[in-house]
């Protein structure tokens, strides 16, 4: 996990200051793709390498993109309906935020 974080941090640094960190990012990508036994690290290294070599602008958009805020929608659902949806969590009722009776005719 630390190695993945370091790889991502170095790529982000390269995207912000390419002239100062070009040798560093090349060395780290080389280590990640050739000398690592960790398949996740190796795969991410190849992905970053491919992104940076083919389209640096796209790499910048992907790697430096802002993460969306995580919001809780449970406050928007009335408590009685929420309790009923939790009881039927494995059904479509919980997906559509409707009680199970809304899906039955009659």
Automatic annotation (TrEMBL):
Entry-linked SUPFAM superfamilies: ARM repeat (SSF48371)
Keywords of this entry: Membrane, Protein transport, Transport
Instruction: Please provide, in alphabetical order, the Gene Ontology terms of the cellular component aspect for this entry.
Output: endomembrane system; membrane coat
Q: Where in the cell is it found?
A: Endomembrane system
Q: Which residues form the signal peptide?
A: none
In the record, the note on similarity to other proteins reads: Belongs to the adaptor complexes large subunit family.
Q: What is this protein called?
A: AP-1 complex subunit beta-1
